[in-house]
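All the exercises in this workshop are built on plain-text protein records. An example says more than a description, so a record of this kind follows:
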Amino acid sequence: VIDAAGVPFSAIPVDHRTALRERWGGWYVTGDTGEGPHVGNTVATTAINPTLEIDPANLNLPSVEDRIDSARYLTPYSDAAALMVLEHQTHMTNLLTRTGWEFRAAAHEGRATGDDGAASALDPALAETVDALVDYMVFVDEAPLDDAVQGSAGFEAVFEKRGPFDSQGRTLRSLDLTTRLFRYPCSYMIYTAAFDALPAAAQHAVYERLWQVLSGAEPAARLLLDDRQAIVEILRETKPGLPSYFEPPVR
């Protein structure tokens, strides 16, 4: 929450689990969120009760050209779709960093990391770290969208084009933006250098827990069978080093 001068009153962490109506205070936001309200393009007016009021006049802006001198910037857009992806990516990066740190610290301290990273042999604190990472990867507790979102800068097409794609033309970068962020609820961050740089024990543990979710052995994530099958098929063709036990689930 900021005032008209840009001075912050308060802040909350934001990622894909945050309801849209609570996002983007202090940010310019462009694009169409339909009937889905948010608090972008808005400032607080009183320090006594610094809340942001949702104003229809601040929603669904095609650009910021009527709000600021956009000629001073690279673009007149602050694309809603791009912001949503950034929010997911930022916290995913934090979780990957934390997981790597926790496993390296545990190894240094002689705590159980498992010879092959098996979750059953993990120190409880490491198991909790792995659970948090995998839950976030598969969008457990993702806040549903109130309405379809469409960006204003063509971000969706550019982002999805980066792939990688399987033989059916599917990619984890496919955006949904109607009821949820991604078409296939498994983070594209699995392809990043940050994921590949995890210690071997951490990668083994993450893969084991991810397979428990995608196979249906752990129903807590509540992923639909069609989604789980598609994710496994995509990963098998696009993720180097994926363990061989990742087979298309049947339950």
